[in-house]
Inverse folding.
């Protein structure tokens, strides 16, 4: 299996985007949360989520079973490209 190294700048951008997407949810709460869990599916696309739902559905006997992460109130998608290739 081959792994590619994500530049530090790309990781920082993804981290900041995740925090920005979570801000409205956290600001709407009146109770301070005890724990905050930030889930980053680095390198995971919609095809990976659909494959996971199909696999879970096959194990439960359904055509497709939604993953718990599919029912979260906020989903963020990011597309990146290099600065010199469009």
């Amino acid at each position: 299996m081959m792994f590619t190294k994500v530049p530090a700048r790309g990781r920082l951008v993804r981290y900041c985007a995740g925090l920005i997407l979570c801000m409205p949810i956290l600001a709407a709460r009146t109770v301070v949360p005890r724990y905050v869990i930030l889930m980053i599916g680095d390198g995971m696309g919609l095809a990976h989520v659909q494959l996971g739902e199909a696999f879970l559905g096959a194990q439960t006997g359904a055509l497709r079973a939604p993953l718990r992460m599919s029912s979260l109130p906020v989903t963020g998608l990011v597309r990146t490209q290099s600065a010199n290739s469009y």
